[in-house]
Amino acid sequence: MLLANSDLISRHPAQLYYSVLPFLPSNTCLARRNSTPRGCISVLTGRETSWSPLLFTLSGGTVTAFTSGGHMFVVGRSGDASGIHIYNSNGLLNSSIRTISSDYTPYLAAFTEDGCGVVVVSADSDWGNPKASYRIEKFDLVKQNSQIYRTTPRNDLYPLKLSEYGSYVAFADHKDSLNRDTRISIWRTDGGDDTSIPLGCAAKVRDLDLAGESAHLVAVATKDITILSIPLGDVRQTLYHEGAEYVCISHDGSFLASRAWGEVRLWSITQGTLLASFESESISPAVFSRTNRLYVAEDDRGRVYDASTDPNRVAIKSFPSPSIVSSVVPVPHTQKSILPMPDESRILIRTMVDIQVWSLKLSDTRDAPRNEIMGIDISGDASLLALATETDIEIWDARIGQRLHGIQSRSGDIYSRPVAFSPEGELVVSSSDDEIIVVDVRAGVLMPTTYPFSPQGRDLTEGCVESVGISFDSSKLAAIMRYDQLSDESMGYICVWDLPSGTLRHSLKCGDSHEVQWSWTDQYLRFKHWRGNPRYLNAETFQEEVLEYPGDRFQGPNHLYDDWGTLRILLSGGREGPLFLALPSHLRIKYFSSRGDRACIFSWDGRLLLLNTSGLGTYMEICDLHFEPEVSHVLLFFCREIIIQSHRQLADVGDGMDADDDDDYEDDNTY
């Protein structure tokens, strides 16, 4: 990788160096030996002390699978990148093969036993549509082409699974609407005869899973859990877990995991006994490794349940996991969002936005994530930071990154709680259970006046507050409220109050607007849509107006902006720069605020970073020299590869290091 891109790296060493150095973990050898130069930003709060177990990230996909040896893995994607993409275990793209039709979304995949082909099951279905068509496609990695094996008619969604090497597909075949003759059908993709196994009960199949191809077992979840033998074509065993909606069977058919609402159970199929049960989120993905360890991923944490050594004693340990593990799948009953490598040195995790590969050998020494944060804002003079949680409004000193005090106030929304300073920083506005509230920042208390939110007779509890703000002279405040409609659409309202008295002055339907912003200089409001042009409201006349030249009314006094979860810098010539595209890859932005020489980032995996951006001007001067846009997309990846490779080399020669060097090596958490 480094040799292949050496020309790009050599042409942009300044951008590379200045972008990555501030985010190096503080206790590593590279950070200790390289002080942050003038013109770099610096991390005041949230800098990591050691290397994260996160090794690299890739663009998102709907399905993943490893070869039996773990040296390659496949990612299936839909849309513009429809097809399969083969990666080496270090994340380098090996090849891509386009699918014959982009109308189908891949959701199951398996390498053939010789590793020269990939079998993919795709579905043509829409969200909320109870019917789908399935397609089985074989990709030849040598000839770089594909062939469709079978396409099913559009029918009701049913559980369907692919075997270890893709040689057969198992699915639930409900013969009638009353499920009186439910069968498990086996389609051979390797030229063998198709078979059908009677389930032996009248029930709807919720899920099924296949053991490794040498075990020839299929586990089926109905009102109970049935274990079927494929060669014998009959029921081998029944386990009892009422309400189980998910099953996962181990590679050799010895163990089984079942999940009902809020509970996962671990079974010994060999003994026919329940080994353990534990609480779990209802949609937490779970999968067995080849050594029969059960991996369960939840937000912020992962757990490994191991009964392979002694079935009577289940050992439990943790593994690093992002807080946005995806459980959203294109078709029910299908995708596993986590996948350990065959040797269990790494684990591949599909999140809502990307695919992440984490080391299972490194301990996670990072601070606990702050997933309770629901909104952030920095005051106009960059001296204060406000954080909103479900139970508090926190006020921080943004100059040194220290918490000053917290004001208790419960939110009615568990997902988002917007917060905003007044222009002078003396007030903070946010939402609560059933109204808008204002905090006196200096006193650290709630103001006695509240602002009920009931546009056109609606109650605040029916929707959620998406954005709040205080006018330039602190005479008014505004908020956008969104209400979900029965038609699956949502309707937004913008309300304006007199701040001193709490009187509702005006309410207006604003469609799908999600953000409100006051003018810096007068009584105009801008409310932004997810799509389309912004609209402007005169808060004196309460009439919408067309502002031909909004000018500096709504422009912030800095060059940083959030572009769909990636923080970018706008250079003086209007071009995009790479400064914050070099953020550590797990810091995909959920909330962002920037004023003056301070910027705050809250990531989707619960990390809070407060940054000193006083060196931004110097950096922009550097990046304005011979800047090319493609640099921004590769900076972080190159830097991580350079760092990882150098630390692996240290690990390789670790046996020959003296005692002092060995201490440094251990402190650095190197590979």
What does this structure look like?
The protein has 6 helices and 53 strands. With 671 residues, it is mainly beta. Among the domains are: 1-52 and 364-423 and 556-671, no CATH class; 438-519 and 521-552, no CATH class. Strands 7, 8, 9, 10 and 11 form a 5-stranded antiparallel β-sheet that branches. Strands 35, 36, 37, 38 and 39 form a 5-stranded antiparallel β-sheet that branches. It has a 4-stranded antiparallel β-sheet with strand order 1-53-52-51, with no helix packed on it. Strand 42 (490-498) and strand 43 (504-511) form a beta hairpin. The protein is globular and about 80 Å long. The chain starts with 5 loop residues before the first helix and ends with a helix.
- What general outline do the C-alpha atoms trace? globular
- The DSSP helix count reads 6
- Report the mean per-residue pLDDT as an integer: 80
Largest sheet: 5 strands, antiparallel
Radius of gyration: 28 Å
Poorly predicted ranges (pLDDT <50, ≥5 residues)?
A: 328-335, 625-638, 647-671
Percent of residues in helical segments?
under 10%
Structural class category: mainly beta
C-alpha end-to-end distance? 19 Å
Q: Strand-residue fraction?
A: 35-45%
- Total beta-strand segments: 53
